[in-house]
Design goal:
- This protein is an alpha/beta fold.
- Among the domains are: 2-182 and 236-318, Up-down Bundle (ABC transporter transmembrane region fold); 326-415 and 532-577, 3-Layer(aba) Sandwich (Rossmann fold).
- The chain is built from 20 helices and 12 strands.
- The relative contact order is 0.09.
Length: 583
């Protein structure tokens, strides 16, 4: 985990290095202050020598000002270093997520990735800031205070040595008990984010079914779970403060008792026992040493919390995409031909059954192919093999005469346009959304593909036409309008293969027929693979594939399938009821 996260330091390296240097300078100055105070008391105030009072007073002010300067600068550099580090972690995580295949994304839920990018990164950022500043300040203060206290009075300084083992044992117990609980907390955060995301995405459904109280209850249960886990962890950590207080007051009592005896025995005369000023400096060193120990304990507690976050971040950073550019790195797709050779696929190694089983299928370039079948027959899974959204577990998928595993991914996907079942539009104008297909597309290009997708007719009714702003997720357009915009966006890629995954289900049959007619006339050389629930959408296709339970049940033209295939005939008859498929 540390090795992985250390790669994200980069431009935070300079302030991260400067911070410990500044902190050590601050610590040295702070431990010198008690010695100056002791001299001020013993040589100035006790003896009534004002020259000595002024002399040591000026030195004391100078040391304090210098310590303040180094403290402020170390705080600035620590904050800058941690901010840069957190920025780099987020960027590296987000970049790596963008490279993930669908298989990688399936491994992490979206809610979990959001938690890792936000809460976990914030925890690691705080830990990094603490490590660059307090992690150096506390040990430096501890060491220097030990050295100076032994210089004042070695006998009293041994009291500090006796306290450290006690605190170390307490701290070890706290860390061992609290770490598993913090780990559980962050897992529960994933569930919380998942509930929030699901609720907000489906807020219209929630309100239409009057399920607000149900959703509030779900949120409340998970929120209570976080509260309970955090409470358990914090109860464990709470033992840290009493342990520190016991150590502090024990040290003060022993120093007071033994110091008073030494002062009485020596008559408060420098060089003859302990003086009042030296006793005061020992009290200060006691506080500095024990405060350092308390800071060290806080560091361990914070690191315990952040370790769970760091491990989760490292999981994302170390995850490598299961789909990468082929070794041959083929950059040209010759044509839109597609062939499946004994293809089987399962979503994970743990899956009991294959989602696709022994698929053999040949599609010629420029053909229109329809895919139909019942829900769960793996129609969408089949076409996702073509642009390598998933890789086949067994067999080969051939596009343009080349195995898809041999292609450069960008080259392959730029030649395969896919309109998914879940149509997604992004915040921005209609033009902005369409230019995802081709960022250099002219207004004429955009209008042409919109006419092909029958989208121009409703865009022209908007006051701002193609400059109309689309809300997040396309909330301000209808389902059918969203589908047509997504089809137009795909056409703007000028693909050799166009895949429509049930992407005209929300448009009326007349518009659906117009879109199919436009495809046949305007893009005849493009291979069109249409997944549909409506027979009318694929009845005129050159080839229709009937899917059942992850396998091809049959393939042929409409007339051939209607004559020999029970599944296709049943679907056709149930939808047409004896009438025409286009009615």
């Amino acid at each position: 985990m540390l090795k992985t996260l250390s790669k994200c330091i980069r431009d935070a390296k300079l302030p991260a290095i400067l911070t410990p240097i500044l902190v050590i300078c601050e610590s040295v100055l702070e431990v010198m202050i008690p010695l100056v105070m002791a001299a001020l008391i013993d040589k100035g105030i006790t003896l009534g020598d004002m020259n000595e009072v002024v002399k040591y007073g000026v030195i004391l002010l100078a040391l304090t000002a210098a310590a303040l300067f180094f403290g402020v600068m170390s705080g600035y550099t620590a904050s800058r270093a941690s901010s840069l580090f957190a920025r780099n972690v987020r960027q590296d995580m987000y970049y790596n997520i963008q490279q993930f295949s669908f298989g990688n994304i399936d491994k992490f839920s979206p809610a979990s990735l959001v938690t890792r990018l936000t809460t976990d990164v914030s925890n690691v950022q705080q830990a990094f800031q603490m490590m660059t500043r307090i992690t150096f300040r506390a040990p430096a203060m501890l060491i220097f205070a030990f050295i100076f206290s032994f210089g004042v009075n070695a006998q009293l300084a041994t009291i500090f040595v006796a306290v450290i083992p006690f605190l170390a044992i307490v701290l070890a117990i706290i860390i061992k008990l609290s770490y598993p609980r913090f780990t559980q907390v962050f897992k529960t955060y994933d569930k919380l984010n998942n509930v929030v995301e699901e609720d907000l995405r489906g807020i219209r459904v929630v309100k239409s079914f009057v399920r607000e109280e149900h959703e509030i209850g779900k949120f409340g249960k998970i929120s209570d779970s976080i509260y309970r886990n955090f409470t358990k962890a914090e109860k464990t950590i709470a033992f840290n403060a009493p342990a520190m207080q016991i150590a502090v007051y024990t040290c003060i009592m022993l120093i007071s008792w033994l110091g008073a005896q030494s002062i009485v025995a020596g008559g408060n005369i420098p060089g003859n026992g302990l003086t009042t000023g030296e006793l005061m400096s020992m009290f200060t060193y006691a506080m500095q040493i024990l405060m350092s120990l308390m800071m060290i304990s806080m560091i361990f507690v914070m690191l315990t919390m952040s370790k769970a976050s760091g491990d989760r971040i490292a999981e994302v950073l170390n995850e490598k995409s299961s789909i990468v550019d082929g070794e041959k790195n083929v950059s040209e797709v010759a044509d839109g031909s597609v062939e499946f050779r004994n293809v089987s696929f399962r979503y994970s190694e743990k899956a009991e059954n294959d989602a696709l089983r022994h698929i053999d299928l040949k599609i010629k370039s420029g053909q229109t192919v329809g895919v139909i079948g019942g829900t769960g027959s793996s129609k969408s899974t089949l076409v996702q093999m073509i642009p390598r959204l998933y890789d086949a577990t067994e067999g080969e998928v051939i596009v343009g005469g080349v195995n898809v595993r041999d292609y450069n991914l960008d080259a392959l996907r730029n030649n395969v346009a896919m309109v998914l079942q879940k149509n997604v539009l992004f915040s921005g104008t209609i033009k902005d959304n369409l230019r995802w297909g081709d960022e250099n597309a002219t207004d004429e290009d955009i209008e042409r593909v919109c006419r092909l997708a029958c989208a121009d007719e409703f865009i022209q009714t908007f006051p701002d036409k193609y400059d109309t702003y689309i809300e997040q997720g396309g909330a301000n357009v209808s389902g059918g309008q969203k589908q047509r915009l997504c089809i137009a966006r795909a056409l703007l890629k000028k693909p050799k293969i166009l895949i429509l995954d049930d992407s005209t289900s929300a448009v009326d049959t007349k518009t659906d027929a117009m879109i199919r007619k436009a495809f046949a006339e305007e893009i005849p050389d493009t291979t069109k693979i249409i997944i549909a629930q409506r027979v009318s959408s694929i009845s005129n296709a050159d080839l229709i594939v009937v899917m059942e339970n992850g396998a091809i049940n049959d393939a042929g033209t409409h007339d051939e399938l209607y004559a020999r295939n029970d599944i296709y005939r049943e679907i056709y008859d149930s939808q047409t009821k004896g009438g025409s498929a286009d009615e």
